[in-house]
């Protein structure tokens, strides 16, 4: 009798286990939320704008994560070619050796020649600035300023400096007698703290800083003010597109983000940072 009872108990346990497994198999599994991530590297100039754009995009696309990181243009291009970044922020047109990449303009900006606010000089032309860069013009009095030495700050390997070198048809090794800096912020701090300083900076960022009473000013270049309005009407020579660059034709989340970054939905953010909406 004990064996019969034990057999019945084991059978009942096995039957109940089979029912539990069967019922569980019929229950629909919960789908996990889709999680997608993009990495955008490149120019530090574009990081504040792209960070704001990414925040809005993530709110519109739950589960997406957009990582924005400042790596510099050259490192960013290496990363996008190797696949460790989905896009790179570049403040210029693609060069001839980069024609295998794909470019998507999102806004416009300009490069300004920035000096201290108390510097009497108001404008500069291509020849004069070339002579400052190459060490031929070393005193502000030549430009109508004080009898004082020109103190040049220069960035190496950045989008702005590459853009200027191409425009002025100069080579890197021709630039002499400078203090090395790395970012727009450093360029602005340099000129704000040195009455005789001169550096290149983003028009949009320099305008914003000047409005907050940072003691800098933007020199007119070739007779036209360095300003958002002259970039918009194409009269300022040192204007440039701000690009997102990819190694292939974008698709899926990558395409959605790039389309959004250049859309009218973010014009208010572009203007917030002093950039000009891309209208072409």
What does this structure look like?
β6, α5 (159-168) and β7 (178-181) form a beta-alpha-beta unit. The chain has helices at 2-26, 47-60, 73-82, 126-133, 159-168, 184-193, 203-211, 228-232, 252-261, 267-272, and strands at residues 36-42, 64-70, 87-90, 102-116, 123-124, 151-155, 178-181, 197-202, 216-218, 220-221, 239-246, 276-277. Strands 1, 2, 3, 4, 6, 7, 8, 9, 11 and 12 form a ten-stranded mixed β-sheet that branches. The chain folds into two domains: 36-108 and 240-277, Periplasmic binding protein-like II (D-Maltodextrin-Binding Protein, domain 2, 3-Layer(aba) Sandwich); 110-232, Periplasmic binding protein-like II (D-Maltodextrin-Binding Protein, domain 2, 3-Layer(aba) Sandwich), CATH 3.40.190. The protein starts with a helix and ends with a strand. It has ten helices and twelve strands. It is α/β, with parallel strands linked by helices and 280 residues long. The radius of gyration is 28 Å and the shape is elongated. The longest helix has 25 residues, at 2-26.
Give structural attributes:
D-Maltodextrin-Binding Protein, domain 2, alpha/beta, disordered N terminus, 280 residues, ten-stranded mixed beta sheet, single chain, 2 domains, 10 helices
Which CATH class of the largest domain is shown? Alpha Beta
Tally of alpha and pi helices: 10
Radius of gyration: 28 Å
CATH topology name of the largest domain, in short, is: D-Maltodextrin-Binding Protein, domain 2
Instruction: Assign a percent range to the helix content.
Output: 25-40%
The span between the termini is: 93 Å
Biggest sheet layout: 10 strands, mixed
User: What structural category arises from helix and sheet content?
Assistant: alpha/beta
Overall average pLDDT:
86
Whole-number total of structural domains: 2
Q: In total, how many beta strands?
A: 12
Could you say which overall geometry the principal axes of the C-alpha atoms support? elongated
Which architecture of the largest domain per CATH? 3-Layer(aba) Sandwich
Please identify which CATH superfamily of the largest domain we are dealing with: Periplasmic binding protein-like II
* Beta-strand residue percentage: 15-25%
Uncertain runs are 1-7, 9-34
The SSE order reads: HEHEHEEEHEHEHEHEEHEHHE
């Amino acid at each position: 009798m004990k064996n019969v009872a034990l057999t019945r108990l084991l059978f009942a346990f096995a039957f109940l286990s089979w029912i539990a497994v069967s019922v569980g198999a019929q229950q629909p599994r919960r789908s996990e939320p889709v999680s997608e991530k993009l990495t955008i590297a490149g120019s530090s100039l574009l990081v504040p704008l792209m960070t704001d754009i990414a925040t809005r995009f993530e709110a519109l696309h739950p589960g997406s994560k957009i990582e924005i990181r400042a790596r510099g243009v050259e490192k960013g291009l290496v990363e996008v070619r190797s696949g460790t970044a989905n896009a790179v922020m570049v403040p210029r047109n693609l060069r001839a050796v980069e024609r295998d990449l794909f470019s998507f303009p999102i806004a416009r900006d300009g490069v300004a020649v920035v000096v201290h606010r108390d510097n009497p000089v108001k404008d500069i032309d291509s020849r004069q600035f070339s002579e400052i860069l190459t060490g031929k013009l070393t005193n502000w009095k030549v430009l109508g300023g004080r009898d004082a030495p020109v103190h040049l700050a220069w960035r190496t390997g950045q989008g702005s400096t590459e853009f200027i070198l191409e425009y002025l048809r100069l080579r890197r090794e021709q630039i002499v007698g400078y203090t090395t800096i790395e970012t727009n912020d450093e360029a602005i701090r340099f000129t704000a703290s040195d009455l005789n300083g001169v550096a290149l900076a983003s028009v949009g960022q320099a305008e914003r800083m000047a409005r907050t009473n940072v003691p800098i000013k933007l020199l007119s270049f070739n007779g036209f003010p360095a300003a958002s309005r002259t970039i918009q009407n194409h009269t300022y020579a040192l204007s440039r597109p701000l690009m997102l660059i990819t190694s292939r034709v974008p698709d899926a989340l990558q395409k959605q983000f790039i389309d959004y970054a250049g859309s009218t939905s973010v014009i208010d953010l572009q203007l917030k940072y002093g950039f000009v909406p891309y209208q072409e």
